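Open question from group meeting: does this chain pack into something compact, or does most of it stay loose? Before anyone orders reagents, we agreed to write out a predicted structure and look at it together. Recording both the input and the output here so the notebook holds the full record.
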Amino acid sequence: MKTRLSLFVLLFLLILIGCRASVVIEDAEPSNEQSLIDCNVGKVLFPTLKEEEFNHLYQNRDFLTDGNHLGRDIKLPEGRPIYPVACGTLRVYRPASGYGTLVAVVEHRLEKPKRVRNGIGSEVEVTGFLSIYGHLRPTHDLNGKDPLPIKAGDSVSPDTMLGYVENDAKNGDGAEHLHFGIRLQSMSDAAKVDMNWFRGYDTTPSQRRWFASPAEFLTTLMTSDILVRSHPAGTLLQNRSDLNQIWMVGPDLALHKLSPDDVWDDHLVGRYIIVPTEELSCYANGSPYTRELTDTRVIKFDDAPAVYEIRDQPEPKRYAFISEEAFSSWGWESWQIVVRPANERPFYLAHYLDRGLRRMRDGTLVKGRGQSETCIVSNGQRLPIFNWPTFVALGYQTDDVIEVDPSVLNAVTYPRGPMLTPQTIAQCLHHPSGPVIDLGTPDFSMPRDLGVSQDLAVPKDLNLPMAPSTDLAASPKDLGVPIKDMAAPVPGMPEVCNGADDDGNGQIDEIFLCPLGKHGANCVTVCGANGYRVCQAPNCDWSLNCHPFTETCDNTIDDDCDGKVDCADADCLASPACQKPVDMGMNQPPGIRYEFRVLDQPFVWQANEPYVLYDEGWQAVNCQNTGSTKMEAMANHWYRCDAKVAIDPFVGNFFSKAHPDWGFKGNLATIGNFPQHCTPTPSVEWRLTNLPKNQLFFSGSVDQLPCVTFGPYDFHSLPAYE
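Structure tokens returned:
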């Protein structure tokens, strides 16, 4: 009886534990330690083809995110091939509950012991590990034909394909993804302490001490032999021991401390590299950080694509962004660009001192499109990074790499400088020392040759409303020369391609807008191959280095070379020529532009109605917001009138306030319109909003009637005009 009861209890417990779908319940594999591991791991890779895929979490499931998950779930499409992270011996290759059609487990032996952090936060020394790959199938197609020719006991390398991501119907746990786990034991040691040793979730008693965060573990192994004691100028460092301490490595290679306001105002949020205190002690102490972007704004004129950074204090000055990529590297976004009418250009050029070009910001990761070499922009140079482990050791992420057309790489990012190698980044700048070592040939590729580029690809597509690469291009003789401080008291006209020194700086045709004749330059261009604009002027010794313009709506020219002109092109920018604004009759303050009203039905005041509610929608026109028709502002008008019939449908009492959803910070703008025979009653909310170009669009009022008053209002206090 006791035996029966014991068996019943054991069976019940097994069923109870097995009810958790994602907990792998498997008998320990038969010991096949006789299948010796015939390689020592010196380098580890990712199980996916590219690092950015490794960063795509499925349902945000990382190591211990729910307290029990013992791996990293990577969202991947069905059929994506999966590879071992290093050489080793395949220990498990079969179906398993919770893992679906196939789980693969590889045992690895390290060249030398490594210290890593385990699942309970302790640092431990390991000589080998197990890598776990769940939710796979052994065939490329769903039909199950032609499985991969591998089995448990086989030796595998990083080039050995383990399987393909299984579809959601058969993978054992949700939509398509890879479960990737790291166990810090050999198979035999793991099986001694855990009957479900390649489990995906923790249970009681806890096994997390034998597991590690896959992302942290791989990073540790990739960088364990690389000591980092310095980062290039322009790098933002965060103290690992005190995350409130943030420092900038300055051009003098000293540390300059930043406050939270410094980080915010200078668009540096999210650019931190977390480093140990030992590295911080390797720099000299510099003065407090000086902000570069306080009281700045970005503008462009409505007849040309070039974007300028404007600053009023302590002295009026301006920079011109050399390219879209440079604009992005300074932390600006397209919605912050204020579009000014072209007739204001002479004022801006005369009032704001020309300080030259804004190229890529120091600390920006960059690579030529289609190339593998990845660099960091620093101190007037772009510094190549020796190889992938060096990149990882420096704390960089591939998602932060910006791609630039190789033909303008020098112009946008400065010339190529010395390489960042394991030797150079190990130098303590405050007291340099260290042996000279032979590093071999720079190699930014992965050893896995799968016919797929293993370079640092950038998944995101930067898409700002400017020319994609060079709105302002430099001539060959000026490419990569650090920008000088052009301190002329009164700047000249913009340099154009005409053989003359237009801006009075002693250089001829050094920079100019790749132009359309009517846009203030004489260098005529035509649409060339691949959408590039080709300079036609005889004194220009370059070609094919000016990318297409963004379509402008009122010049009858195919600016972006796509065969569509002006408003026929869905990508065109704002222009009054696309749709005439409604003249509401209000005296327009300087600099305020009217929005275009999109209403078919006129407002009609019904006789004998004491209250009327009128919802009025304002939308961006086609050319204002790339064809968008979403509601940009909403005005709810309540009219109360003591007279039987109102004199004018567009009169009443208006109270205008900034709606919190649109994030205004300035003073509220108030307009009171009091029509004849009407009792003024504050009852109208008029919501204003910023459109993508950061312009404030304000619908007007009626002509002033005898009893109409205006004020107080201050449009210039709103962010668009700060």
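Observations to bring back to the group:
The mean pLDDT is 65.
Residues 579-722 form one domain.
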